[in-house]
Specification:
The protein has a five-stranded parallel beta sheet, with helices on both faces. 58% of the residues lie in helices and 11% in strands. The protein has nine helices and five strands; from the N terminus they run H-E-H-E-H-H-E-H-H-E-H-H-E-H. Bound molecules: adenosine-5'-diphosphate (ADP) and magnesium ion (MG).
């Protein structure tokens, strides 16, 4: 069957009333993990494999091309330069951008049968603004829940990597580091531990992948998880 045929079949299925994101024929997957753990690399490999298997795939990264999200990003970046933004404001702006992409992009794509891959999603906020920056987790969770309005990934793959190896990978690229990448190792240790505690709390949704292996070996572990959910 051609990719087009698969897509058409899924599209016609999606015209049935959707009970929830879980009953629609698309799929929502998020990748999480610290800088340098291999998210971009794995997303590229997974997209290729899914497309070869005839799936329509869309990769989104917040603000994901929504006009409102782009304006918010501009605000976040501008404020970064001025160091004038409070962590609370930062959290709410990320949440606002997410609320927009969920309704404008993610839901319609998943409902039309697309396999949507998110390069980071709500767990990044929980871990970076909550665990690492120290904002109260109950507030972070409540804001996150309100922003996504029930649109949780069906599967989240946490690429887990020790801080030193991640640091080496980032430095090996030889490019200039961004603000997040320049944080001290203690910050990344908090990020890593934050992610691991989330995975422990939500073992059904969040699967830990050992990212300390070659891209091909990590990809096979990723594929095993994805194939199990699609079966
Ligand atoms: N499994 C791996 N082993 C060694 N290097 C890797 C691996 N996966 C990715 N890299 C390299 O590490 C760097 C960071 O990877 P990237 O996929 O951009 O991570 P992220 O998107 O999570 O920041 C890149 O230079 C990439 O080529
Ligand atoms: Mg990346």
């Amino acid at each position: 069957m051609s990719a087009g045929a698969v897509y058409r079949r899924r599209t016609s299925l999606s015209s049935l009333p959707a009970v929830s994101a879980y009953s629609s024929p698309g799929f929502l997957l998020s990748f999480e993990g610290s800088e340098g753990c291999g998210k971009s690399t794995q997303i590229r490999l997974l997209k290729e494999r899914l497309e070869n298997a005839g799936r329509k795939v869309e990769v989104l990264r917040e603000p994901g091309g929504t006009e409102i999200g782009e304006s918010i990003r501009h605000l976040l970046q501008h404020a970064k330069e001025g160091h004038s933004m409070t962590p609370e404001t930062e959290l709410l702006l990320f949440a606002a951008s997410r609320a927009q992409i969920v309704r404008e992009k993610i839901r319609p794509l998943v409902e039309s049968g697309v396999f949507v891959i998110l390069d980071r999603f709500l767990d990044s906020t929980t871990v970076y603004q909550g665990h690492a920056r120290g904002l109260p987790l109950d507030a972070v969770n409540a804001i996150n829940r309100f922003a996504i309005g029930g649109t949780l990934p069906q599967l989240t793959l946490l690429l887990d990597l020790d801080v030193q190896t991640a640091w080496q990978r980032i430095h090996a690229t030889g490019r200039e580091l961004d603000r997040m990448e320049s944080q001290p190792p203690e910050f990344f240790e908090k990020v890593r531990q934050g992610y691991l505690s989330l995975a422990k709390a939500e073992p059904e949704r969040i699967q830990i992948i050992d990212a300390n292996a070659t891209p091909e070996v990590v990809h096979e572990a990723v594929w095993k998880q994805v194939a199990a959910r699609l079966a």
